[in-house]
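Entry for pyridoxal-5'-phosphate complex. Fields follow.
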Amino acid sequence: MKGAVSETQPQRERAIPFDIERIREDFPILGKVIKGHPLVYLDSAATTQRPTVVIEAVDRFYREQNANVHRGVHHLSEVATREFDSARVKVQRFLNAAESHEIILTHGVTESINLVAHSYGGKFVGAGDEILLTTMEHHSNIVPWQMLAERTGARVRAIPIDERGEVRLEEYEKMLHPGVKLVGVVHISNALGTINPVRTMIEMAHRHGIPVLVDGAQATPHVKVDVQALDCDFYAFSGHKLCGPTGVGVLYGKTRWLEAMPPFLGGGDMILSVSFEKTTYNALPYKFEAGTPPIASVIGLGAAIDYVNSLGFDRITAYEKDLLDYATATIGAIPGLRIIGTAREKAGVLSFLLDEIHPHDIGTLLDQEGVAVRAGHHCAQPAMKFFGVPATTRASFAFYNTREEIDALANALHKVKQIFSL
Ligand SMILES: Cc1ncc(COP(=O)(O)O)c(C=O)c1O
């Protein structure tokens, strides 16, 4: 795969050196051949690939450091605990959280959001209250709130979006009032690629005293996140979308909320003392971390954070912007192709329809060419419904993709059209 820097590329990209060939070598799986073709992995919104340093960190843990954390007095347990605690501090710095106890380690963004819906929702949301969510939320930021609404008699309302796939801020403004107990917004939409104006939306909600939860699943791999600058109340992300292992995620919460919230799951580690008469809970962050955590995955996440930091977010964001612009122009020029999601601020995702061909057929035929994309509703059915489509084909990018891979996608799409004689 040739490097990204060529004569045809814009000045901006040449000014930001990004040694794509070197970077691709960090990801062993990218060298695979699938069905006789070099793998073109365009499904990073579903899960990113992992660099060797992450694979090795997990491997090293099991080979050399494996023990449970926070429990033992023996050497291995101390080593494991030190590595685990240091990964939490890496996450804290990564998000620029004020305190490490504001970082709750979970199993993924889905669990993080369920934690807030149960714990914050159980305490602060009652009958007649409202939860506002954008129409483009992933199901994991809709269903937990609907379940809360069923339990409490609260109401979930959808913040409208427009034809580009942008939040209609003037409608959002009208929906804010003191009866709203939480706003949930996806930072970057996995179905449309929209980068939402989360800072503005948070400011607007805070004027009414409403806390905001940001689903950062698709943002942390693409843009620098600063929870203090955003002033969000909660921020959730998953390790596996950030080149880290599966089974680990993060919930950032402001101290004052986390202190005020009851525990979510009960069990070991989240208590100070247990008796049948009275149990007292542990301090933050442990109050929300019942049971043995995904230790190896947390350590792997720390390695992933070190890795993406070493590339630099200014360079990652600029490189990916160039890639998305190139993909939008190249793929968008294919006759009969309609891009779904044309927000002015976009990252990482190109969702599209091609003539009348079903996205699943497109995905299956692209796979024959070694091109891995996703086809379906992307766990964002309300967004699909808004655009009047049941499904799209989605190519999603990461910093390890290249223009050549986008050309491979375009060529494969032309073949799909030929097969359907279109
Ligand atoms: C925007 C968004 N939110 C939430 C999730 C759920 O993430 P996980 O399955 O890692 O919990 C995803 C996964 O695709 C996502 O894209």
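NOTE: Residues 15-44+312-417 form a domain with the Aspartate Aminotransferase, domain 1 fold (CATH 3.90.1150.10).
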